[in-house]
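User: Hi! I have a protein structure encoded as tokens and I'd like to know what sequence might fold into it. I'm fairly new to this, so please keep things simple.
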């Protein structure tokens, strides 16, 4: 009996286990079928509800109509203000044009001023360059003049040296002639000449002699400058004892350098007795006339006058 009960219970469980999956599959199939049925049922509802959006749109339009009308009223209210703004803009347009024109003129003026400044700077730079060029030309000219002057100075020095050499040679020649003349003169001739020169000696030369200014100025013959420079002046000394000497109207005259000239003053009493033999003398122009100078007594000068014959 127990075995029959166990078998019956086991068979019941098997039936329940087999039936449960079947019920589960059936439930799943029913669940799958439900959405299809719901979709089929929903389709007629949507078909029935399709006209609802148009009605809703019409209701929305009716609801929005007052708002749109309010907007149009606002636009109409703003229209005069916009028109006034346009009129203001139109009224301001000439002023703006004037401002723009003034700005353009200012810009043009600034541009012109910049061009003027640039031109002025260029002109100043050119002026500086011209000044520098002129200064350089002056410097070059000064250098050339200085070089030319240096060459002239050198040439002058050479001529002076040559003149000094010639004068030295002339002095040597005159000294030789003087020596020969002294040797040729007899003691009697020397004594006669000394006596003659003693007659022209001053007792007080400071009170007896007179300058050409005191005489009223020189009015005798004037030696040409080129000839004067060749034979007369302190660089051309000579001795009187070797020269031709004669008396004209109580005045002693002697010839030198192609001219005759006479002593208008007595010779100073403190000169040596034979100064005309041993002292070097020269003829020069001093201030207002011609004078005879003695190198041994440079402070004294005897007024003389030139004669052609």
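Assistant: Happy to help. Inverse folding works backwards from shape to sequence: for each of the 309 positions I chose a residue that suits the local structure. Here it is:
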């Amino acid at each position: 009996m127990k075995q029959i009960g166990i078998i019956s219970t086991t068979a019941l469980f098997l039936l329940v286990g087999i039936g449960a999956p079947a019920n589960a599959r059936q439930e799943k199939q029913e669940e799958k079928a439900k959405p299809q049925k719901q979709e089929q049922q929903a389709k007629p509802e949507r078909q029935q509800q399709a006209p609802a959006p148009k009605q809703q749109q019409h209701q929305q339009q009716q609801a929005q109509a007052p708002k749109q009308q309010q907007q149009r009223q606002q636009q109409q209210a703003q229209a005069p203000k916009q028109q006034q703004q346009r009129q203001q803009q139109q009224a301001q347009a000439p002023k703006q044009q004037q401002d723009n024109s003034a700005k353009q003129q200012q810009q043009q003026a600034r541009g012109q001023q910049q061009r003027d400044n640039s031109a002025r700077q260029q002109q100043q730079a050119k002026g500086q360059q011209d000044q520098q060029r002129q200064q350089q030309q002056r410097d070059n000219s000064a250098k050339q003049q200085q070089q030319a002057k240096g060459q002239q100075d050198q040439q002058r020095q050479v001529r002076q040296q040559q003149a000094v050499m010639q004068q030295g040679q002339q002095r040597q020649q005159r000294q030789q002639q003087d020596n020969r003349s002294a040797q040729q003169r007899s003691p009697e001739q020397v004594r006669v000449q000394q006596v003659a020169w003693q007659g022209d000696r001053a007792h007080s030369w400071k009170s007896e002699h007179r300058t050409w200014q005191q005489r009223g100025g020189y009015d005798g013959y004037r030696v040409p400058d080129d000839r004067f420079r060749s034979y007369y002046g302190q660089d051309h000394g000579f001795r009187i004892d070797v020269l031709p000497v004669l008396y004209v109207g109580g005045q002693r005259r002697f010839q030198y350098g192609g001219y005759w000239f006479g002593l208008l003053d007595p010779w100073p009493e403190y000169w040596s007795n034979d100064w005309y033999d041993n002292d070097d003398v020269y003829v020069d122009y001093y201030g207002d006339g011609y004078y005879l100078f003695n190198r041994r007594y440079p402070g004294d000068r005897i007024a003389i006058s030139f004669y052609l014959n």
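A useful reference point when you look it over: Residues 286 and 301 are 9 Å apart (CA to CA). Feel free to ask if any position seems puzzling.
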